[in-house]
Amino acid sequence: MAVKDEIHTLADQRRNTERLMADDAGVSRAAELLSHGGLVSFPTETVYGLGADATDATAVAQIFAAKERPSFNPLIVHVPDVAAAQKLGRFDDQALLLARTFWPGPFTLVVPALPDSPVAALTSAGLDSIALRVPSHPVARRILAMSGKPIAAPSANRSGRISPTTAAHVLADLDGRLDAVLDGGATNVGVESTIVACHGEDIRLLRPGGIPREAVEALLGHKLISVADTGDAAPRAPGMLASHYAPAAGVRLDAVDVRPGEAWLGFGGLQPGGAEPVMSRNLSAEADLVAAAAALFSALHALDASGARSIAVAPIPKTGLGEAINDRLSRAAAPRPGKA
Ligand code: TXA
Ligand code: MG
């Protein structure tokens, strides 16, 4: 494909990865890189995270490029305290009790996102909920305080590899793909945070982790439903969120023309034939897959809101971040039960 030569993804662009010590100079350099859209790995008490400014869609897209994730999983957003979390998500009494008890610590809460949240749509993969965590690791806490931004951070490993518990693990997997690693020694929990979703009375364990289930159950005074225990919980289970991404409009992939009543989602320079689109967006006129990933969920929301019966999507290369973009679009295009 001719367009392939013009595509630049982060994976192709080797970066100079700075090795930073977790002293004042290192932490301020890390915060500076983060506030300019950089990717910085830092220690948390669970595992090393691969951090970026959660409000910067392009920076978040580069997390997915660096990890070579074949799909866009929603990411955990790290904040310094409960008050900062309440600026991004809606906490009812139960969620607040959990937050005040287990934060700071290896515990993540999924709550409804506030409508005016500054967090980029890509960070939560277009969901209307947000995963929030207040880490206890002193280095993570200093970065959060100094950057003043919510930081999206999955574990700092390539997709399918083992989560890193030292800076050396991070470098072995990701050297040249991120701007800096802040070396704070080995992490002590070593497994990821426990994830609990709070949607009113419906409180579920999405992922077992550093805080034992029993501790959560003792606090709430009842057993937690595990997503694995239930037949109907799939949409909230990590990695199984297909139905949440689906727009009301249909999605038609690899389109080169527009049919009557359709919206157009373009990529690169392709000019579609056919009808005049109800609304049109281009994910990246320059055919840049990182930019396209950053724009994807907000474009889908906007085109869906236009009332178009269907969204015609230009062909998008399947390489680099294109794999995740195509994965997400094909899930949106798949027939789904209960929807016309
Ligand atoms: O310990 C940890 O949690 C580490 C450190 C770096 O903080 N982070 C981590 O992030 O494990 P990650 O991206 O590897 O895992 C995030 C998990 C995914 O399984 C994702 O599906 C789930 O959180 N998740 C995030 N947002 C969600 C949401 N809105 N609804 C449901 N699940 C969500
Ligand atoms: Mg992970």
UniProtKB/TrEMBL annotation:
<dbReference type="InterPro" id="IPR017945">
    <property type="entry name" value="DHBP_synth_RibB-like_a/b_dom"/>
</dbReference>
<feature type="binding site">
    <location>
        <position position="69"/>
    </location>
    <ligand>
        <name>ATP</name>
    </ligand>
</feature>
<keyword id="KW-0819">tRNA processing</keyword>
<dbReference type="InterPro" id="IPR050156">
    <property type="entry name" value="TC-AMP_synthase_SUA5"/>
</dbReference>
<keyword id="KW-0963">Cytoplasm</keyword>
<dbReference type="InterPro" id="IPR006070">
    <property type="entry name" value="Sua5-like_dom"/>
</dbReference>
<feature type="binding site">
    <location>
        <position position="207"/>
    </location>
    <ligand>
        <name>ATP</name>
    </ligand>
</feature>
<feature type="binding site">
    <location>
        <position position="155"/>
    </location>
    <ligand>
        <name>ATP</name>
    </ligand>
</feature>
<dbReference type="GO" id="GO:0005737">
    <property type="term" value="C:cytoplasm"/>
</dbReference>
<dbReference type="InterPro" id="IPR010923">
    <property type="entry name" value="T(6)A37_SUA5"/>
</dbReference>
<keyword id="KW-0067">ATP-binding</keyword>
<keyword id="KW-0547">Nucleotide-binding</keyword>
<feature type="binding site">
    <location>
        <position position="245"/>
    </location>
    <ligand>
        <name>ATP</name>
    </ligand>
</feature>
<keyword id="KW-0548">Nucleotidyltransferase</keyword>
<dbReference type="GO" id="GO:0003725">
    <property type="term" value="F:double-stranded RNA binding"/>
</dbReference>
<dbReference type="Pfam" id="PF01300">
    <property type="entry name" value="Sua5_yciO_yrdC"/>
</dbReference>
<feature type="binding site">
    <location>
        <position position="78"/>
    </location>
    <ligand>
        <name>L-threonine</name>
    </ligand>
</feature>
<feature type="binding site">
    <location>
        <position position="163"/>
    </location>
    <ligand>
        <name>ATP</name>
    </ligand>
</feature>
<dbReference type="InterPro" id="IPR038385">
    <property type="entry name" value="Sua5/YwlC_C"/>
</dbReference>
<feature type="binding site">
    <location>
        <position position="153"/>
    </location>
    <ligand>
        <name>L-threonine</name>
    </ligand>
</feature>
<keyword id="KW-0808">Transferase</keyword>
<protein>
    <recommendedName>
        <fullName>Threonylcarbamoyl-AMP synthase</fullName>
        <ecNumber>2.7.7.87</ecNumber>
    </recommendedName>
</protein>
<feature type="binding site">
    <location>
        <position position="73"/>
    </location>
    <ligand>
        <name>ATP</name>
    </ligand>
</feature>
<feature type="binding site">
    <location>
        <position position="193"/>
    </location>
    <ligand>
        <name>L-threonine</name>
    </ligand>
</feature>
<feature type="binding site">
    <location>
        <position position="46"/>
    </location>
    <ligand>
        <name>L-threonine</name>
    </ligand>
</feature>
<feature type="binding site">
    <location>
        <position position="133"/>
    </location>
    <ligand>
        <name>L-threonine</name>
    </ligand>
</feature>
<dbReference type="GO" id="GO:0005524">
    <property type="term" value="F:ATP binding"/>
</dbReference>
<dbReference type="GO" id="GO:0006450">
    <property type="term" value="P:regulation of translational fidelity"/>
</dbReference>
<dbReference type="GO" id="GO:0000049">
    <property type="term" value="F:tRNA binding"/>
</dbReference>
<dbReference type="Pfam" id="PF03481">
    <property type="entry name" value="Sua5_C"/>
</dbReference>
<dbReference type="GO" id="GO:0008033">
    <property type="term" value="P:tRNA processing"/>
</dbReference>
<dbReference type="InterPro" id="IPR005145">
    <property type="entry name" value="Sua5_C"/>
</dbReference>
<comment type="similarity">
    <text>Belongs to the SUA5 family.</text>
</comment>
<comment type="function">
    <text>Required for the formation of a threonylcarbamoyl group on adenosine at position 37 (t(6)A37) in tRNAs that read codons beginning with adenine.</text>
</comment>
<dbReference type="GO" id="GO:0061710">
    <property type="term" value="F:L-threonylcarbamoyladenylate synthase"/>
</dbReference>
<feature type="domain" description="YrdC-like">
    <location>
        <begin position="24"/>
        <end position="211"/>
    </location>
</feature>
